[in-house]
Every structure is written in structure tokens, then in C-alpha cells.
Amino acid sequence: MHARDFAAESLLIEEEPYYQPVGSEIALFEAAYASQIPVLLKGPTGCGKTRFVEYMAWRLKRPLITVSCHDDLTASDLVGRYLITSNETVWLDGPLARAVRCGGICYLDEIVEARKDTTVVIHPLADDRRCLPIEKRGEVLKAPKEFVLVISYNPGYQSVLKELKQSTRQRFVAIEFGYPEAELEKTILMREAGIDARTAEKLIKLAAMTRSLKGNGLDEGASTRLLVHAGKLIARGVEPRAACRGAIAQALSDEHDMLVAVDELISTLF
Amino acid sequence: MHARDFAAESLLIEEEPYYQPVGSEIALFEAAYASQIPVLLKGPTGCGKTRFVEYMAWRLKRPLITVSCHDDLTASDLVGRYLITSNETVWLDGPLARAVRCGGICYLDEIVEARKDTTVVIHPLADDRRCLPIEKRGEVLKAPKEFVLVISYNPGYQSVLKELKQSTRQRFVAIEFGYPEAELEKTILMREAGIDARTAEKLIKLAAMTRSLKGNGLDEGASTRLLVHAGKLIARGVEPRAACRGAIAQALSDEHDMLVAVDELISTLF
Amino acid sequence: MHARDFAAESLLIEEEPYYQPVGSEIALFEAAYASQIPVLLKGPTGCGKTRFVEYMAWRLKRPLITVSCHDDLTASDLVGRYLITSNETVWLDGPLARAVRCGGICYLDEIVEARKDTTVVIHPLADDRRCLPIEKRGEVLKAPKEFVLVISYNPGYQSVLKELKQSTRQRFVAIEFGYPEAELEKTILMREAGIDARTAEKLIKLAAMTRSLKGNGLDEGASTRLLVHAGKLIARGVEPRAACRGAIAQALSDEHDMLVAVDELISTLF
Amino acid sequence: MHARDFAAESLLIEEEPYYQPVGSEIALFEAAYASQIPVLLKGPTGCGKTRFVEYMAWRLKRPLITVSCHDDLTASDLVGRYLITSNETVWLDGPLARAVRCGGICYLDEIVEARKDTTVVIHPLADDRRCLPIEKRGEVLKAPKEFVLVISYNPGYQSVLKELKQSTRQRFVAIEFGYPEAELEKTILMREAGIDARTAEKLIKLAAMTRSLKGNGLDEGASTRLLVHAGKLIARGVEPRAACRGAIAQALSDEHDMLVAVDELISTLF
Amino acid sequence: MHARDFAAESLLIEEEPYYQPVGSEIALFEAAYASQIPVLLKGPTGCGKTRFVEYMAWRLKRPLITVSCHDDLTASDLVGRYLITSNETVWLDGPLARAVRCGGICYLDEIVEARKDTTVVIHPLADDRRCLPIEKRGEVLKAPKEFVLVISYNPGYQSVLKELKQSTRQRFVAIEFGYPEAELEKTILMREAGIDARTAEKLIKLAAMTRSLKGNGLDEGASTRLLVHAGKLIARGVEPRAACRGAIAQALSDEHDMLVAVDELISTLF
Amino acid sequence: MHARDFAAESLLIEEEPYYQPVGSEIALFEAAYASQIPVLLKGPTGCGKTRFVEYMAWRLKRPLITVSCHDDLTASDLVGRYLITSNETVWLDGPLARAVRCGGICYLDEIVEARKDTTVVIHPLADDRRCLPIEKRGEVLKAPKEFVLVISYNPGYQSVLKELKQSTRQRFVAIEFGYPEAELEKTILMREAGIDARTAEKLIKLAAMTRSLKGNGLDEGASTRLLVHAGKLIARGVEPRAACRGAIAQALSDEHDMLVAVDELISTLF
CbbQ/NirQ/NorQ C-terminal domain spans which residues (chains A, B, C, D, E, F) (predicted)? Predict the structure, then answer.
């Protein structure tokens, strides 16, 4: 275990992350970056949004600061706050201010989970003003041209209470993510889980079946990540059916009938 | 990246912002300003309300202080608060108090998003008392005649919970904003995105189609800002259909059927 | 811009405010004041409640302390709180305690907007105990006979959640306010907006039409204040129809059909 | 204006409060006091519950501490809290702890308005344990036999959300209050408002009419307090009908039809 | 009045509390205590749960710490917190930690009223881990074998929102309490209220009638405690019917019809 | 009673916990541990999830840190916070940070009870980033390969409001727990409660009956833990029927009809 501090250089992704492009997402991201328009990534969990951002950070050689958004994330958590210590009062930049200062990529993951003040605080950064007012310091940070704001969310989860307001989403260029094509997914599985082509194909067939059940008893189909999990367990010697039950079926659902149905799918494949 | 402090002179807009008048909004704003009546801007996102305020600030040569309102914005955030440091207790003016002191324009963007105490705190500033009581300091700030309060909101979003109370709105002169006429919008697009007239016309046709879908599957039509985004991507070499999908279709909606429909509109145009 | 501190003498209204009596409200207020019974003002926004209180403060030569109530106004905001500075802990009287100490008029505007603890904290001041317990200081302030509590609210807004409890309202003598008679309103308009009699009459006719729409598409009719706004814009050279649209129609409603209807009314008059 | 501190002797009621007994309430209170059982007063606003407690405090020669309960009243507000000053940390007894220490009467007015923790904190004081645990000081106060807890509420207001739990109410002996008999009320009115017998009789007739409207358009009928208000205004020279409208009709209701009806009642009497 | 500190010895019940066993509750409690299984007491208000715990504390010679649970009781209130004074930061054990340290009985009265974090904080103490993690001190308290956790609740009050979770209740041995048999209740009444056998019998008949009305207009029947209250008032000379009305009828209900009905029951008995 | 501090060595389970494997759960856990995939345990209360984690901690020789999740558990409670003492400001690692630093097992029991920010804070630890950003210190903890995150929940309790999001659950390999087979449960009962085979068999029959009532009047059937409780009471000499009523029937339900039914089951067995 070792601590990494937040200095800009340490936030650079040094090694090229393994990323398989699905369509024109790289070109679109680069054009938005060059035009200084922020980017919105849409798509289900486990389909590679986070990996894509890491890849683009490596490609553009920009520091990456990731924030997992949640119900209690406030504007101060993003912008910064004063910290009272016994000797002095110190200002501590939040991740958004840090990213602006160092001209990095600020990635707000699952933005719709955050409180509304968080989505509003990014507005002046997300239009052509490109500035971050830090009220508490009486300071306005002007973003350098290298700074880019990236947000993501999963449209499948959006409820009325947690939807992205038009005044927010109309500030972004959007890129949609889905599950990779079968051939591409097979390549990913073999490389990431260390399994053979046949096992990978079976897992992908299983995934396709669960994905077709989305909306018919399953909230989501099996993501590529789940297939990697099952593959890794199999590679460690776990019996394939047990691996698929633990890493895929049980991870997807708690419904008894659905679990029986997925178990049958598993038995027909392995 | 450089920090700009809040001293009044530094809040002046030095360069004339690009603004194309739509109707008599400039005359109306100037008469209200001269009569010391506050101004309310109404209209959808991305139609130029913020740009208009920046333009008027430049024209009237007044410092501009903008506040993006949100659920957690309190009266103290606007008025000011005591800051306890290790050596002393310092009063820090909020943006509203700062604007009053320097006789500037205080622009509260999306006022209905703020908590109710925020809308009440502006009442004494918004009638002929024109003063801001700062309870915590036992002080009453009297606004100079140059000070003007500007608020904005999007009537399309107003829910019962978040509507502007009559006792608030009846304190303002209201100016309504909409999308610019086609000719005007074309001029804006060509200048801001750097595209040719033909591409601009196609984008405007696409916008008109989405705007007619408002209330029939779309919450909002494409704003001028979205057209500028698409234009910029096209100018950077992105294939026009991909640019329109990312900057317009995906930015407007997550609904599969609606996305297919907008995609067809795009294909008939490009 | 100059700061006025809260010393009692500085809260006196030095100049007679322009106030046109509507009925026996002055006699009723003076009898309640002499009997040490608190006063409740009822009526729609913009009909002169605040001006009336300022007038009575001037007439009775009592300091006036006004508090705009809101959702987050707590009992401590009214009564006072300890302020911790680096050197010492200082007690800061709230506006209610200040008004009691200096025998002034404490005017709580839109009382129903305040939190319930606020309405309860005034109970001992509003019956024959006439005292304000300051729990945090272990002190009970006894109100001098000059002190009077005045509260206001708009019955048109009262929801079930925000109604004045019987145990509160039965402590007050109530005075109802409405729109002034046509002749009186004309005098007010000509004096406050600096317009001629004919324009004033037209504005009053327009107001009467909107007031008859109250409950039929409008939450409120145009108040006298709105007419003054329109008049001032006209006096500044704004075209009368544009002035009425901005200062009256758009200030009253966002509904498209209603705006068209009010616009037609405007066109028949100007 | 003079401050009265909370030392036990200063909380004694020195002068006999004017109180007209309605039934056996004095005997019942005295027996409960002698048996060390707490007392619950039930009844509508303005019928003399507070005056009765003041009278009993005078009669039993016990200090009286009154707390108006509200939504934000916490257990700490009642029991006490530490106060951090710059030099030291001081414990400040809340009103309940003060009353226990000095063997006084603690009167919690409108108890159902308080938060639930408040009603629970009185449980150990309200059964035969008769003690108040002060968790924050690690101290248990044992109540002396002179201490008595009195609570009140208005059954007419009780909603499902704000009812007194059985585990609370079954700890008290209950005394119900209503409006006084006509003869008694006449005596009270003449003495408190300084009016003649005929005016008093008319006011009582008016009160009886409004009381019969309770539940048929009025939430409450006119309390004795309202009659005293009207009487005082009349004694000050206000025209009787105007006095009744301001002090009774407008204080009871905002409904136009109801106000017209009560106005007619007033006109038939005066 | 004298303060008792929380040192373990001072929390011992020195005198045998008057307790009449109803069934095998003493044996069951002792076996659970010896097996180090926590105990859950169920039953309506006023039937002796608190008295039973005091009796067992005396019998087992263990210090007793009682906490009345409520909506705002947090885990920190139970476990402890740091207290910042001007000179140092002191840790203050909460009642639960105190009880664990001194091997006492911790009695959480009306546990379902507490916030959910409170019920979860007792889980590690309520299974065979028998430990209390104090996160804030980085300390795990191991309970000595003499420590026992007792909780109580009234099943009659349980709403969906406030029910004991299975993961909580399945950690306890449960003992149910009801009203005592008539003979036993008579003995209790005569001893506690100091009344003769005939009066006691009449009160018990009255109680039986009200208990049969539970669910038919009454939330609860009259508890033994209410009978003791009525008996004490009668012993002090209050007329029996007035005593029963104040101590029983009015304490049970506010409904006019129900009060008339109970009054008739009272009149047939006394 | 003795305090154990949180140093890594002291969190090791020194003695082998008594654990009877039910299926392939040990192999699955070990493969997930070796693959650095986090583990999700599903199953009803009292079926041994906590014991299993303790067993795996002993087997893998890793320190175990357990957190009982609840409504008020925040991200700061897990990650850590600054503690202001009078002399200095100290950072206090939360249990999650502690577990990461010492390469231990962090077990979040009943994760769905926690606030949403808690489930999000574990995301970067639960995918291949395996890091814990500590925003307040500007530090990113990288988890050593020995660290493993384990969470548990009871699918039977999941409500719409408290379900595990797909973006969370798809990060884990899931292991499902149920009640042990009869033979195994008998072995457990005899060993843990110290009862003979016949009594254990009767208890297991009783459990089976209650388990078949799940969803038909019972929220849950009797867990193994409840049988151990009843067995222990019987071993202490409590009459078997009374033991079963207190430890099983009353612990499962408050419904009168259900209690009568379970009592009859008990009577037919003992």
C-alpha cells in the first residue's frame, strides 16, 4: 500500500490502458476537446465508460481526476473548502478546482446521483464562460484550454427525480456506449480473464441471452465486466457452472424464478 | 489559468460580447434600469439570456456578478457570512452584498431553483426600499442607483413546487426570450461555429423540426447553443451526421424511439 | 452606498411616507396600539401593507424593524444568538429582541412563510404576558408599552401546510387590505409614476380586467405596484403596449393563452 | 424594558392573577400535585389554560417556567446544553432542568407541536421514577416533591401525525377546559375590557353564534380573548361593528362567504 | 434535589422494587441472562415492563441504565462522543458504552422509536460477538458476561415504518407482558394507591370495560398505572367520578362520544 | 472487560471459528480473493454469513474489520475524518481506510441499509482500479492485493428504496446462503446449545414448519440462531415449550393468530 498525492504529474496515466474502440468515440471526443465543448458519456454499467476516459486521458496526456457522484456530494465537495486546523485556516481545493488549475480531465461519474447544486456548479465551466467561481475565496478560476469536463450517466436508471436537466445536458456533446460486438467482446474476454476462445464464446452467448431479458425480469443484462469475472473464476479452477452462477446469475438478480431460468441457460451452455 | 479577484473594476466586461438583439429588449432593460426597477428574464435554456446580461453589463459599464442558483443556495450564500480563521473573525460579503456595494448588476440565474429564503432576501432590494438588511452585522445596505437586480428562469420547467411567487414576480419588469428568427440564427451560427451558409441552414432546419416536437416526446427543442456545438464539430472535420447525433440528438433525449426519429431527420438533411 | 446601523434612532422614519388611507385602518391601528394588542395585516401583494406600516411608524414616531419571513427563518434568527469571535463570545440580539428593547414596531412580513418555531416564539409577546423569553441567555425581556408586533400575510396564498394557526391568529386584531378605489389609485399612479390622467385611467382599466381574471387563469390580478412600473416605463418613453406587456402581462403569467388574452386587452386600451 | 433573570424567586408569580374557576379544576390540580402525578390541560385556544397555570403557580407559591413548544424544539432545548465561550465551556440548564432543580412548575404549552424526542424526554419525570437523566453531564436529576410537570394541547388540532402517544398521555391526570358560562364570561369581559354589561352581553351572543359554526366553516369559535380584544377597542372609541370585524371576524377566518355571514351577525347585534 | 452521578455503584437499585410476577418471566429472564442472550420485552404502556427491569436489576445486583428511545436518538447518543472543552478534548461514554464497561443492564425503552442506526449499533452486542465497536476511538469494547441488553416495545403501536427488523428481533429472547389478572391487580392497586378493596374492584371493572373497547374506538385500554392514578386521587379526597374522569377517561381519549360512553360506565360503577 | 485497539495484528481471528461449510462457498471465496474480485453474501438473518466471514478471515489469516451499515452511515464514517482536538488536528482513518492500509477484509454488513454515498465510495475499490480516494487529505490509497471487500444483504428485505444498484452489484461475485440441511443443522445445534439429539431434531422440525410459513404470515422462518437460543434455554432448565415460545414464536411475530398457530406446533412436538 502506498499513498499517491494529487500533484498534477502524479495524476497522469503512465501506461496505455487496454481499450478497444467500438465506433467513432475517439474522434468525437478529440473534436469536442479541441472545440472546448464538454463531453457526456451515456450507457449501462460495466460497458467501459470509465476505461474510455482513462484511455483518452493517456492519449491526450492530461491528468485525470475522477469523482464518483452520490446523494450527498455537495458543491463544496467539488469546489473546495476551508479547513480549520489548530494553527491556521487552510484552503483545500476540491477535485473540480484541482482539475481546472492543472488543465486536466475532470470526470464526474454518475452525475445524476449528485445533489442539484453539484450540477449547477458546473454550468459556468460547461458553456463558453469556462470559469469556476469560488465564492468562498472571492476568486474566479478561468479554465485553461486543456481542461475538459466529462460526465457520465446511465439512461436506464433515470427516474423523474434524478434526470439531467435540459439546461445541463444541452451544454454537452454526448457519446453513447453499449455492449461491444461479439468478436470484440471475445478478444477482451480472452485477454482480461485469460481464458480460451471456446469458453469466451459460451460466456458471450450467455450474456446475449441475459441482455435480451432486460426489461423482462432483469434490470440490466450481464455486462462485459461480469463475463470477465466469470472467466477469471474459471481460470482459477472454479467449476464453470458455479462460476457463472456466482459471477453472473446471482450478481444480476435475487428473483428465484429468474435465477432458475438463468441457471438453465447456464446448464445448456456448460 | 489565472485567478481574477472580485474587485469591482475586475468584474467589468472589457470586450463587447457578441450579441444580436431580437426585439426591443435593450430599450426595455435600459428604461427599467433608469427607473430602478429590477428585471426578470424568461426563456428556454441556450437562447442567450446569459449573453444578453453580459452585453448589457458591457453597454452600461457596470460590474457583473452572476450566481447560478440551486437547491442548496441559502440566503447566507448570497448575503455573506462570518469566516472564523485562527487569528480573527472576518466578514465575507456574499455576491449580492458585493454587487450592492459596488453598484453592479447582480444576475441570479435560474432563480426558481434556489431555496425560498433566497427569493425572500431579495424582496427589500426589489421594491422601492432598495436596501439589503445584513442581519448578522446589524447593518442595512442602501443600494446606489447604479445597482440593478436581474433574475432569470425557464417557464417551461416550472413545477408547482418551484414556481416564482406572485409577491416576487410582481416586483420585476419581465422580458421574454425565445429562439432567434432563422436569418438571425444563421448569422450567429456562421460567426460562432465558423461554418458556411448551407450547413447553417441545414442545422436550422433540423432545429425547427426538433422544436416542433417540444411537448410531443421532447422536453425542449434544440437551442442555438446545440447548433453551435454541432457546427463546431463539423468545422473540426467530424462527419455531419455523427456531429448532429452527438451534439443534438443525444443531447436532447435518451428515448430510443425519439433518437431513431431524430436520426431520420438528420439523414434527410445531410 | 452607505451603511445604516441599527441604533434605535436610526430606525426612525424621518420623512412622512406617501400613504393614501383607504378606510378606517389608521384609527383601528392606533386603538390596537393604545390597547397593546398586536396587529395582523391581510391582503394581496403590492397593495400597500408595507407602506402602511412605514406610515404608522412615522406617525407614532417609533423605530421600525422589518423582517421578510421565509422557510428557513428560525426562532434564533428572530431572538438572537451568540457569536463566537476569536477574542470573545458576543451576544447578538435578533430583530425581534432589538424591537422589544427599543420599544419599536417589529413587522414580520409574510409570517406564514416562516418555520413554525417562529410563529410560536411570538406567542408570549402577543398575549397579555407581553414578554420575550431568551432561553439562551436565561433572560426574559418585558416589552415596554410602546412596543407593537405587526404581522402580515396574503390569505390568497394560504395552503393547508402554511396557514396561520388559530392559536396564533386569535392573538391579533386584523386589518384587511385590498386594491384602492379607482379615483384613489389614479392619484397614486399620477404621483408615483409621473404620468398624465388619461394614461393612469387606461392602466386602471387594464388592472380591473386582470383582477376580474383572478381565479380564472391568473393567481393574482395586477397590483398597484405593477401599474406604477408600467407608468414609469411609459414616462421613460417606452411604447405603452410594450411597457404593459413587460411590466404587467409577463409579470403576471407564463401561460401562452393567458398572455395572448391580456395582450388583446392591452391593444384595445392603447 | 427590564431584564428578569431566571433565579427561582424571580419566577414566582407575586400578584394573584385574575382567574375565575369554571369547575373542580383547582381541587383536581391540587390532588394531582399532592400525589406527584403530572397534569395535562386540554382545550381550545384562548380559554384560559395559561392563566390557570399562572394562578395555580401563585396559589401553590411555586416558580413557573413556561415553554411554548414547536416543531424545532429539541430535547436539548429543554434539558440543557454546553455553551462554548472563548474562555471556558459552560453548562446551561434548559427550562426543564431549571424547573426540576428549583422544584417549580414546568409548563409545556402545546406539547404536540414539539418533536418526538421532547415528549420522550419527559417520560422518566412523568412516572414514579420522577427523575431527569442529563446524558451530556452524566447526571440524573431527582425531582423534589414540589416539582410538577404540566402540559397542554388542543384536541381540536390533533392530526394523525401530531397526536399524543398513549405511552405519554397515560402518565397524566387530564383536566378539560372549555368556554366559560355566559354569566361568568360577562364578568370577565366587563373587568378585563372595561365595558358595560350590555356591550358584554352582545359580544357573548356574537361569540355563541360563532362557536356554533365550529366545524361548519370555522375551525374555532371566538374565544374569550377575542371578546376582550373587541371590548378593548370599543372602550377606546372604535365603532363597535368595526371593532368586532377586526378583532373577531377577521381574526377567525379569511373565507369571503364566512366573513359576510359573521358581518351580518354583527350587524344584527350592534 | 440532589444529583446522582453515573458511577456503577450509584446505578444499583438499593431497595427491592415492588413487583408482582405474572408468569414465568423471572425464570426466563434469568436463563437468558445466564446464557448471555439479550431480552426483548413486549407489551402495552403502563403494564409494568420498566418496573420488571428494575426488579431484575435489583435481583441480579447489576447497575441499571435506562434510555428512553426517540426519533432523534442517534448511535452517538448511545455509544458516546468527543466533547470539546476549552482546555482539552474529552471522550464521554454514552449510556450503552457505560453499561458495557460496568457489566450492567442496558435497557432501551421503546426501541422502535429510535433511528435505524441505533438498532444496528446494538447488533454486535446482541449476538455471540458481544462487543461494541467505538469507531470514533478506534476501540472495541468486549462485554463482560454480566452485561445484558434489554429492549422493549409495544406491538400495538408498530407501524410499517417503525417495526423491528427480523435481523434485530431474531437476536433476542422475547417475553410478553399483558395486564395482570384481576386478583393480582387488586393487590397492586390497594398497595400502591392506598385504597380499600371495594374501590379497587370497581376500578378493575372499569378497566376491563375500557380494555374490551381497544380497537373499537380506543387505541388502548386503561393500564394498571391509570387505575393507580385514579385510586390516589380518590385517596386524596377527590370525588370518585371526577377522579375516574380525569385520571382514566380523559387520559384515554379526546373523542366526545367515547368520553360520554366511558362517563356512563363510570356512573354505573360509582 | 478490556479494550482491544485496531492495530492490524489485534484484528486477526486467533481461534478457528466453528463453521460448517454448506456447499462450495469456501472455494468460491478463495478464487474471488485470488482474482481480487470483491464478494457479495446474500441470505436471510441468522444463517451464518457473519460467521463465514470470520472463518474466512481466520483461514486466510487477514485482519477483519466489520461495519454494521445503517441509515446514517456516511462516506466519512467509512473513509475517515479530521478530528479537532485542543492541541492539534488529527486525521482518523475510518474502518474502510484502515482495512485498505493493513490489507485486511472489510465486511460491510447489510450494505443496503447505508446511505447511497456509502455504496458509491466503495466503487473505485470494487473494480480493477482498486483504490480509495480520500478527498479530504488529497490522497489516493492503492489497495494491496491482500485487501478484499465483502458486503452482505438480505434479498428478502429489499424494498424499491433500498435495493442494490446494478452499478454496485455487478462489481461483485455473489454467494448465496440459506438454512443448513437438517443433518448439518442438528450437528450445529448439539454443539452450540449443548442439547441432546432428540431435542435438536424436534427444534429442527419446528423450524421447518415456521420456514414453510414464510410469506404466509411470517416475514422470515426461524433461523439456526433462534434454534440455538431455544436449545440454550432448555439446557438451562427452562421448560421446552416456554423456551420455544420465548426464543422462537415471540421472536418471530407479534400477530396473535400466528402466535397461537406456532404455539400449537410447539405443543405437538414437545
Answer: 185-268
